[in-house]
Amino acid sequence: MGFWLDLTASGLITGGIYAVVAVGLNLQYGLMRIMNIAHGEFLMVGAYLTWWAHTALGVNPLAFLPVVMVVLFLAGLLVYRVCFLRIARGAPSVEVIEARSLLVSFGLMYLVQNAVYLAWGADLRGYSFLTEPVEIAEARFTANRLVVFAFALGASLALLAVLRFTLIGKAVRAMMQSPVGAQLVGINTATLHPVVFGAGLALAGVAGALLSMVYEISPSMGEPYTVTALIVITLGGLGSAAGCLAGGLLLGLVEAFGMHFTNPSLKMLLSYGVFIAVLLARPKGLFSK
Amino acid sequence: MRFILRVRNLALASLALAAALPAFAQDVKIGYAIARTGPWAPGAQVTQEPNYILWAEQVNAAGGLSVKGVKRKIELVAYDDRSEMETMLRTYEKLMGTDKVDLVLPPWGTGANFAVMPLLQKYGYPVLAPTATGRKLLEMKNPYFFAMLQQPDLMMGALAELLVSRGVKTAAVIYVDELFGLENVGALETALKAKNIRIVEKKSYPLGVKDLSPVLKDIKAKNPDAFIGVTYPPDTFLVTGQSKEIAFNPKVFYAAVGTAFPVYQQKMGATVEGVMGLGTWNPKSNPGTKAYFDAHVAKFKKEPDRWASAHGWAGLQILQQAVEKVGLDRKALRDAIANGEFDTIIGKIRFKDGENVSTPGIVSQWQKGEFEVVWPKARATAQAIVPKPAWK
User: Fold this and answer.
1) Which of A36, B220, B284, B341 could bridge B350 with an S-S bond, Cβ 3.0-4.6 Å?
2) Cβ of B293: how many Cβ atoms within 10 Å?
3) Which residues of A touch B174 (CB under 8 A)?
4) Residues 6+ apart with CB under 8 A from A42
């Protein structure tokens, strides 16, 4: 029994990490169809800011989370204004937004990455934080992984609640369904659009900050995370907060059990197997409507 | 009339001088492509490119590279290969085929070196590669390729010797699903078998894995004397952190690539105490390594890694000595490297069929903030601590 619990828990925790990585992109792509392929790069910026604040200034990484969030949010507003405003405004349909934003953010990806190379160099970096093991029901986990998991759970549930129960959430969903219709009923899309984009970047930054506590970081770390995020939100259903969490956790569990009962080298095969199976059964993702 | 003649003579003389001058002062062009961006960059920028820059600077400060006794300044012609095999190959093709630089220095990593080897032979440029390992490379029998690192059988053989000398009877092994992992785990199995050490578990894992705790828990349950991870840097960090997490503390804990990186200790802190890995040297090894270490830190504000960095430096020392002796005729240079013996910071080095046959397999261990060489005894800077202390 302890063994099953152990395996489940480690799967859930890794899954939580996957979900955290995907939350920000889920806002941008899932809700607004802005295909921000530079998502992983902004995550990396969050990681670097946190690492820098901790090693150079001695700031507690957890206390620094709000700073990362604000900085990335403001950066998000700026990026939106410079790169995506015209696209969102001029595009005749969401498909066009998708295609054009993909191209623009591809360029962004290189810009951000190279800016970090210039600022901090290519070396691997890292610091040690909350690495003490915590014992829960005979299973042991490092505290930093638990923090990431708690945040994944918290952020997903909060997002779910905001989208479902608040007026802003309703406005965001309306904007997604029909930008023109939303304007007609009095929703200020000119404000809401950049704010949601900024929130997506802020969440990416926080995810990066959390990951920097667990893994070591480098300027090229972003790309694999972008891929993970895309898989998770497609698995869960675009724009669905619950789906994002469920998709991440499912992947984590499949990997943990798969690695135990088969071989770690089959990890990719298993994850993509699940991905394909879900897409065959529910082409729009687990939680799509 | 005499005046005019004198002027003419002067003009001719200065012309001749102008024509002759560049030949005397011409820089030695040394080209290379290496990763400054992309996934190879962390390794390349810790282990390899800083050596090139530091070496060129030191040689130039001393008047230049001695080409058969004539000192000529070094001009590095360097490109970022962006961690792309294609870009790397095209750059070397351009450097050797079109620009015809005097010498080239190798790219970073086993894969890139493997890919560039045919070009080196085609254009006849000798290289001494510090970050390429594997018998597969040597089996190519490329006369222009010299591998500075110890081969897997030597490194794993040294580890097996150390283990048996400390009474280790059982071992559990994980390895990365790449050429590096496969070749090393093969060598390890042979070495352990020869010393009658039983392998109780052997599992592979893919690059980019984010969680290895399910595997480590299995291994912990089998209670082996030694844990040996044939790992790459991200996973080296991962297995260390997760073994601590689940309180898996075998008598010997060994992880391969990355343990020698300064960032390993910077990130993990006191946790690394007692962890063993691939290493060759540290500043205490000899006065040469101390001078190298200090110059590196002074120039780049960061430490070199305790394994391949010094092999990279030694490769440049060999190149320098060979150029001094035979000049820039690359065929003669190749023969000089292949047949000579050279003094380097990691000891005397001689090659046989492209393999460094002088540097023995070595095991190092983190002890109080330094990656101490603990095996073989002749190179040791400290005694091995077995059993490893509890995780901190």
Assistant:
1) B341
2) 22
3) 264
4) A24, A36, A72, A75, A112, A201, A204, A205, A208, A222
For residue A242, pLDDT over 70 is answered with: yes
Distance CA A42, CA A53 (A): 16
Give yes or no for a contact between A152 and A245, defined as CB atoms under 8 angstroms apart: yes
| CA dist., res. B78 & res. B9, Å (int) | 43
Class of domain B28-150+285-356: alpha beta
Closest CB to B42: pick one of A122, A133, A256: A122
A55-102 pLDDT, tens digit each: 999 999 999 999 999 999 999 999 999 999 888 888 787 788 888 999
Chain B residue with minimal CA distance to A269? B206
Mean confidence (pLDDT) of chain A: 89
Correct CATH for B152-281+362-379 of 3.40.50.2300, 3.40.50.300, 3.40.50.200, 3.40.50.1580: 3.40.50.2300
A3 falls within a domain: no
Q: Does B177 touch chain A (CB under 8 A)?
A: yes
Q: For residue B183, give both structure tokens.
A: 């070749």
Give span(s): CATH 3.40.50.2300, chain B.
28-150+285-356, 152-281+362-379
Could you tell me the pTM of the whole model? 0.87
Predicted ipTM of the assembly: 0.82
Chain-chain contact of A141 with B245 (C-beta, under 8 angstroms) = yes
- Of A124, A224, A263, nearest to B42 by CB-CB distance is A124
pLDDT tens for B122-170 read 999 999 999 999 998 999 999 999 999 999 999 999 999 999 999 999 9
Q: Which residues of B touch A260 (CB under 8 A)?
A: 214-215, 218
